[in-house]
Write a structure and sequence with these properties.
This protein has one domain (9-156): Endonuclease III, domain 1 (Orthogonal Bundle). Helix content is 64%, strand content 0%. The chain is built from eleven helices and no strands. The model has no long low-confidence stretch (mean pLDDT 96).
């Protein structure tokens, strides 16, 4: 299966076939628009002139990688911090999963183990682990036993809560509308 996020086709293809690129995009999906986060692994590939492996990123000179992330337009709002976090992610994938990021989900006994594995990754935590499980299940057909439950409300069919539910411009608008409503609700609760 191939992702059909409203980003460049080549970026969707990369995220669909390269588990490390997908994890990197999920990690980068904070404090930047979703399109930026999910396009950045593709842009990193362009800047390097090839698709980097997790091992390559793990072994990259930290200053040089930070410079690649910071090159305009920067791959993230916080390029130096995210380059360091990308290296940490790459080291975990290299050390624990023999460099194969898709092994994070392919070798998990069940969705509970997958959620635990994802939550341990830098920049993830419980919330992002659930969204990642929903994305894998809804859009890439990775559906280990109990995946909807492990994804929490993000696993609900027909929902528009996260990137897991975005497949075109209309679904992007629906997700953004939901997120805006949740922010307003939280703001009202904090004020009242």
């Amino acid at each position: 299966m191939t992702l059909s996020l409203p980003i460049e086709h080549g970026a969707n293809e990369l995220l669909s076939r390269d588990g490390f690129a997908l994890l990197l995009a999920m990690m980068l999906d904070q404090q930047v628009p979703f399109e930026k986060a999910f396009s950045s692994p593709y842009e990193l590939t362009r800047r390097l002139g090839h698709e980097p492996s997790a091992q390559e990123i793990a072994e990259f000179n930290p200053e040089a990688l930070a410079a690649v992330f910071a090159e305009r337009p920067a791959l993230h709002r916080f390029p130096r911090a995210m380059a360091a976090r990308a290296q940490e992610l790459a080291r975990i994938v290299t050390d624990r999963y023999d460099g194969d990021a898709s092994a994070v989900w392919a070798t998990a006994r069940d969705a509970a183990e997958l959620r635990r594995r994802l939550a341990e990754l830098p920049g993830f935590g419980a919330y992002k682990a659930q969204i990642t499980i929903a994305l894998l299940g809804k859009q890439l057909g990775v559906q280990p036993e109990g995946w909807r439950e492990a994804a929490g409300h993000f696993g609900e069919p027909g929902s528009h809560y996260s990137v897991a539910d975005i497949s075109d411009d209309a679904s992007l608008v629906a997700v953004r509308t939901y997120k805006k409503a949740m922010k307003q609700k939280a703001k009202a609760a904090a004020a009242g």
